[in-house]
Amino acid sequence: MYDVIIVGAGPAGSTAAKLLAEKGFGVLLIEKFKIPRYKSCSGILIKKTLMLIDRYFGESVPESVMCEPVENKGMIFTNDKGKEYRFEQEGRNIWRSSFDYWLVRKAEESGAVVRDDTIAVSCEEKGNFVSVRLHGKKADIKSGTQTYTEEARYLLDCEGVACVLKQKIMKTVPAYITTYQTFQAGTIDLDPHYFYAYLQPELSEYDAWFNVKDDLLVLGVAVKDTGKIRHFYNEFLGYMKRYHNLKIEEQIKSEKWLMPRIRPGCQIDYGVRHVFFAGETAGFLNPMGEGISAAMESGYQAACAIADHFDYLDQVYAAYGQSTENMRSYMQRQWSLTGEMAETFQEMK
Ligand SMILES: Cc1cc2nc3c(=O)[nH]c(=O)nc-3n(C[C@H](O)[C@H](O)[C@H](O)COP(=O)(O)OP(=O)(O)OC[C@H]3O[C@@H](n4cnc5c(N)ncnc54)[C@H](O)[C@@H]3O)c2cc1C
């Protein structure tokens, strides 16, 4: 029996696993894909994320996970009236699969047992512990996969956006935004050191964006209705051609993903009895997909609360809620600022 089973080896899960294992707790970290796993992302580590990595992992992000241009100088937003807002700050440009792999290896080095290619199917409270149903390959079976259970005092659910376990536990279906981005060989008249977000309603139902990764031009749009992806993406390409001299030579790849749709009030779900939530599963996500810092910080705070109050469930909840209070109000302020900038986000004001 483990002390804590953590589901999801993203930034929330790996950060929590590292802290708990370091403190001597028995941790099982479950990941449904083979690691390093792929995750659609713009791959910008903002200054806050870099600071959290130094604090939680005791070292800086290694160069091996970075892509060109390594230095990100901040974000440039264009609002629905065409007005530009510049947010200058030092950041880094990384490939998510390599970055998340580095995080998960750090958790493993600290003593967490990592089991990839294994999906958490369901979980059940049994008195003072949780039984988790898993499907995958176990170390003690020679070949093939099987369904089996593992038990722990607590389950920390860091599944990210799809959060199947959370949906089963809470019997609710979350609202989503669909993201679509392409990687293009080509040229453009924009500074590759910035991340550009466009909030004009004719370009997306949420935001459209541009950044550069290892000489590839990344162009994306986010929509509420997936049937409108093609329309908005074509509008956005037209806009970038007209105003920024975009010239495409060849499309290298495209990808579709999901993002939680944050609603007014920025509701956070901390957990249900012995099952806690962190990262996007809990509802932590700052505007324009800035979610890595929120995932790491909430994973860390959930782990601290469990470690400090292991035998007192109510105190775990109280400590987790208190230590993330500043994050919550920061998140609300950031979404409200976005609501001031563009009509698309008016409900968030
Ligand atoms: C297009 C796009 C661009 C983005 N750009 C940025 C950016 O530049 N900077 C930034 O900070 N944020 C960005 N974000 C947001 C950021 O990616 C997320 O907020 C962040 O990854 C959330 O971390 P997490 O640990 O909560 O979840 P995730 O990173 O999604 O990790 C969850 C993990 O759980 C696993 N999992 C899920 N269900 C199960 C299960 N049942 N059993 C086992 N494993 C399971 C998944 O495979 C996954 O590995 C972007 C998001 C998108 C969609």
TrEMBL record:
Superkingdom field: Bacteria
Domain FAD-binding residue range list: 2-177
One Gene Ontology molecular-function label: FAD binding
Cross-referenced Pfam families: FAD_binding_3
InterPro entries: FAD-bd (IPR002938), FAD/NAD-bd_sf (IPR036188), Geranylgeranyl_reductase (IPR050407)
SUPFAM superfamilies for this protein: FAD/NAD(P)-binding domain
Cleaved signal peptide residues: none
Protein name from the UniProt record: FAD-binding domain-containing protein
Organism: Eubacterium plexicaudatum ASF492
Lineage: Bacteria, Bacillati, Bacillota, Clostridia, Eubacteriales
